[in-house]
Amino acid sequence: ILDVALTVKSGGLRVLIQALIDGQPGISEILVHSVLYVLDTPDKRCYLRPGVELETLIAPFTESNKGVNYEERLKNSAKMVTTLIKNWAGVFYMSANNMRAARSVVQALRMPFPETQKLVLDMFFDVFRVKLPKDHHGFLSGRQHTVQIAPANTTETENKTLRAGPTSVLSSVVMGNLMTAGGISPDAYARSTLDRGATTASNADRLKMLDHHLSIIVIIFIESDILMALIDMVKSDDIYMSRKATLLIGEILQLSTRLLPILMAIQVQSLPKLFTLASNFEDEQVRHNATAALAHIDRLTRARTRYANGNTGTASHKGGERLSATTRTQEKVHEVKLKIGYAIDDTHFRQLLLDTQVLNTKDYTKWNWESIIELLQGPLLNPRRLDEAMRGKKFIKRLLAFYRPFKHQFSDINVTKSTLGRYVKTGCTLLSTLLGNPDGIRYLNENKLLGEIGQAFGELDPLLNNNSQEIEPIFSKERMENTLTCGYFALLGTFSKYKEGVRILEKFKIFSCFYQMSELKNRTDLKVAMITNLDYSLDGHPRVLLSKIMTSGYNPIRLFATQHLGVIMRQSESEYNDWVIRLLVTQLYDTHMDVCQMAVNLLDEACEKHANLELLVKCRPSLGHLGEIGNPLLLRFLSTSTGFRYLNALGYVQKEMDDWFEHGNQQYVTQLELSLARALINTPEKKTNPFEERVDSEHDFEALQPGDGLTPPHFYGELTKTEEGCNLLREKGHFKMFANFVRNFPMSQAGEESLPQLKAVLWALGNIGATKNGLPFLEEEDVVKDIVAMAENSDILSLKGTCYFVLGLIAKTQQGVELLGEIGWESVVSSNGEPEGLCVPLNLHRFLMIRNWKYKAALSSSPQLPKSATDDPVGADILKNIGDMSNHILANEASKNLARLRQQYPDACKRVDLYYSVCQLLGSYHFRSPVRKYVLEIFDMRFTAELLEELDQLTASMKTCNDACTVFMSDLKKTNQPKSLSTTQVPEERLEAQHVKTGFNINNNRIIN
């Protein structure tokens, strides 16, 4: 809305509110943002009547009599309330006047209409960003007594922005087959497919804005008695409503534990009313429901605690990767199998061999593959048993013969998930068993398997096989796509895991074949198969081959190879990935920007380990050619002394600091607010949101600015992580300027230009205060109390929200927590005493208050008409009759007079000054559409360039020469003027809170009523 006063004057706001109430369901979520824009600042808010326009949005919640389309209107209203709560202006509106709007919504849970209760409950699940458990349908319908409790989805919104899956270089079917054969989950690529502009940088140091926003929402609705309303619903005879209310109570208690200070969380957890109901023996049904609710809450708390403890205490190896319970179980099973295999006697072993059917027939379809796997993973790990199977029996010989390409057994089987899982997995297990034994290694050296694979690769050489293409090659495109031929690369990958295996591959010249195949055009499938299946833990040919493909293939395969390097890096147990870092540094100079972006993201991720960061700085990469893409890495460098010295020597720090001081801070605010808006609009169920429907195909804003709900890294924040950076900040004097700007900012003169500057400075202060080295700057200038005062007293609602987030950043350090505690803001700390970066005011009323404002009626001003039109008797007569047309009583006679005047004075209907005067009348007063059409058709105007220029000159002269204008409405009859056009003052409606005391009742000396 460019001009709010003009919109109100023309009745636009009334139309907007009506469209919100009665409009199409999809449009309301978009239009409500316009109303929130008007509500945000006092100069626009004055055009809204307090307690009128906005209250109509939540009216359906409080309607006792159902009218036409009641359910549709309630759904519409619920969507709008959800959108309101995701915007700071909406949050403060919901909590104004002793939380009147929030209480009205909560009271809808007590309405005796199940449809209303269900819709409102669903809305609250969305508001609190709670995802229902997978098996909730059975629990809600009463078919089961418990529900599967999932871990808290604290990082769910972060994962939503990651596009899972590898870069598409082949068809999805072929890609899926190669991934399955190589034992790689597509999710392994998820983290390396970060969107452009995203970063993984030090997530622990970044503010979780979604959590911080949610903490104040939780407080508002707990203050609005949502828990009491839900407990009343638990008493319901309707088992669906009772159990759904139980689920929401449990989630609210979990949120309060995680997001609220301990003083507030303790009070929420008590639930005295629910315990009273659980001990009420007068009503068996109510007691049963209440007991079930308490049992569910108890299970939920225990499960979440167990999950949290499991997450913090099970680091599996140096890399910090979590070792899952499934992996530990598999290791135990393997140990048991090994013990059983060693303990088995000769008779039992021979019987097991016979059971596989391998010794009885060469027909692989009759073999018992489950028994073969059991043998390979158990008894055959015993060297003596393996020797017996190799020498005395034909067991190993027949198995290896099955995998030989020119036997056309394994290589001709159609590829499916089951065949990949059965035959390829068995082949890899067989080779692992043989390579783990000296006799097995000798046996493989003498076997024809690798020789035939090398021969099959040779068929692809265009120089050797120009004249012998009658027979389709084993590794042709069609066979790679449709048969288990793709599984040979998984078998060769097993060899590359062992030093002796690599030597065998060298002996049979397999790596030479790989190098030749990497140069084949139009054989992307072979390159992907090599990349995904080889093992890179040993230094040697696999790493050289990967490097070759990363630097010499066409764009998509280079991008995929770089992406796969991220998977290798994550799976590595080493603290220090020297070769990975060096390869990624090479990719920074790629000609394709997507490859550079991928390399930057992966290096940024690798640098979470300090050793990798030090190594990267030693490589001294040049990042100037990358532009903004390289910023995450440069900010990483700033956070260490070594990196700071390196960048300072290049002159980057001074230049970048000046750049951020001039306009970088404001760009940061734009980026951050876009990210937050997108994160807030994305619901846990990932429904289609209104933003997505309007994305320009040429500018994918989801890719340009992802919504992870975390604050992006800030130059000043990274700068203050080192002593050298703090010294530079002090020398430049930027911080003192920031502090003075906030302290001396005239709130009464905050406009469209100065407000973004203020927000930019506040975010800079917050990011500086979020580090241990930076907080003393804030203490020296004593600027925290100014930020708190702005948060509590500002009339600009979005600015109050910005201050709230900035105070959350300051609460990221222990010293910041103490500093805020002295001013009356309580912070959240984890069970081990670490600050969570969440803080809330103890005096809620002062922070959540909106000052009452005086309604400013935007009335239409009287039209100013040219003197030449009003002095002329004919012109004055025409204008008088047109004025009468707005009065339905006089309209009939006026239309006859106009027809007569047009016939008598045809030239008057061609006058520009008269036409201009008529347009002024039509624009200022109310005329029905048919009347407007009739009046405009009286004039015979041809809109040539000369006419339009004459109209422009007349308009300009009217603005500059008010002396030549006369107000012509004194002659018009007063009866045709609507009452709304009078200058009568509209009485101001004052909304005063009935209860002065707001907030949690905490016994603390620092709390003010």
What integer is the average pLDDT? 78
The radius of gyration computed from the alpha-carbon positions, rounded to a whole number of angstroms, is: 37 Å
Outline: elongated
Gap between N and C termini, in Å?
39 Å
Helix tally equals: 55
Describe the structure.
It is a single chain. The protein is an all-alpha fold and 1009 residues long. It is 61% helix and 2% strand. It is built from 55 helices and four strands. The strands form two sheets. A two-stranded antiparallel ribbon has the order 1-2. It has a two-stranded antiparallel sheet with strand order 3-4. A hairpin with a 5-residue loop joins strand 1 (825-829) and strand 2. The protein is elongated.
Task: Give a topology summary.
Elements: H1 4-9, H2 12-22, H3 25-40, H4 42-45, H5 59-62, H6 70-85, H7 88-107, H8 114-127, H9 136-141, H10 156-160, H11 172-182, H12 209-223, H13 226-234, H14 239-259, H15 262-269, H16 272-278, H17 284-313, H18 325-343, H19 346-355, H20 369-377, H21 383-392, H22 395-403, H23 417-435, H24 438-446, H25 449-458, H26 477-482, H27 488-495, H28 499-507, H29 510-517, H30 524-533, H31 541-552, H32 555-571, H33 578-587, H34 593-606, H35 610-619, H36 631-638, H37 641-649, H38 652-681, H39 690-693, H40 701-704, H41 715-719, H42 723-732, H43 734-743, H44 754-769, H45 775-781, H46 784-793, H47 797-810, H48 814-823, E1 825-829, E2 835-841, H49 844-848, E3 864-866, H50 867-871, H51 873-884, H52 891-904, H53 912-924, H54 929-938, H55 945-960, E4 965-967
Antiparallel strand pairs: 1-2, 3-4
Helix pairs in contact: 2-3, 3-6, 6-7, 6-8, 7-12, 8-14, 11-30, 12-14, 13-14, 14-15, 14-17, 16-17, 20-23, 23-27, 25-29, 30-32, 31-32, 31-33, 32-34, 33-34, 33-35, 36-37, 38-44, 43-44, 44-47, 46-47, 51-52, 51-53
